[in-house]
Design brief:
Number of domains: 1
CATH superfamily: Alpha/Beta hydrolase fold, catalytic domain
Largest sheet: 4 strands, parallel
Order of helices and strands: HEHEHHHEHHEH
Number of strands: 4
CATH topology: Rossmann fold
Distance between the termini: 29 Å
CATH architecture: 3-Layer(aba) Sandwich
Length: 159
C-alpha cells in the first residue's frame, strides 16, 4: 500500500500536499516514514486514528469483525500505538468533536470524539499543528471550516 502511494507521489514535480482521512492518514504517515525521496509538501490528517482506534478494537473482537474491517485496518488500528512524527515534512492534524457516528455504537469513546474516533486517538506528537473542530468523522469531509483550515495549513503550515 505504501509503495503504491509513494510511486504515485513521485509522478509529480514540485511540492505535493497530501490530504488524508481516517485510515488513509495512517497509510500516509507510514509512506512518508518509509520513503525518504518523495517531493516536498505538507500533510493534513482528518480524523486519522494514528494512536489506534477503540471502535476498531471492539469490532475486531467480534467473530466477523476482522472481515468487516479488512486486514490493513486490523493491523493498524486494533492496538494502542505510541506513534509520533519526526519527519521533516510539516503535518497538521484535524480532529472532530461532534459525537455523531457509528463508532459510538461499538465502543465507549472518551470525549471529545467525532462519533468514530476519539480526539486523543488523533494526537500525533511532533505534528506541526493541530485543531479540534465541531464536525463528525464523516461530516469533516463536507465541512467548509475543515476545508478552510486545510487550505490555511497548506499555505502557511498552521491553522
Amino acid at each position: 500500500m505504501t509503495a503504491a502511494l509513494a510511486a504515485r507521489l513521485r509522478y509529480f514535480d514540485g511540492p505535493v500536499h497530501v490530504l488524508a482521512h481516517s485510515l488513509g492518514g495512517v497509510v500516509t504517515l507510514e509512506t512518508f516514514t518509509a520513503e525518504r525521496d518523495l517531493p516536498p509538501g505538507r500533510i493534513a490528517l482528518l480524523g486519522s486514528p494514528v494512536q489506534g482506534s477503540r471502535a476498531a478494537q471492539a469490532i475486531a473482537a467480534w467473530s466477523w469483525g476482522p472481515q468487516i474491517l479488512g486486514t490493513l485496518a486490523v493491523a493498524e488500528l486494533t492496538r494502542p500505538r505510541a506513534r509520533s512524527w519526526s519527519g521533516t515534512r510539516e503535518v497538521g492534524v484535524i480532529a472532530g468533536s461532534r459525537s455523531a457516528g457509528l463508532g459510538r455504537l461499538f465502543a465507549s469513546l472518551p470525549l471529545p470524539n467525532d462519533g468514530t474516533i476519539a480526539e486523543a486517538e488523533t494526537r500525533l506528537p511532533g505534528a506541526t499543528a493541530s485543531i479540534v473542530l465541531d464536525v463528525s468523522h464523516t461530516g469533516m469531509l463536507f465541512s467548509l471550516p475543515v476545508a478552510e483550515s486545510v487550505t490555511r495549513f497548506f499555505r502557511s503550515g498552521g491553522f
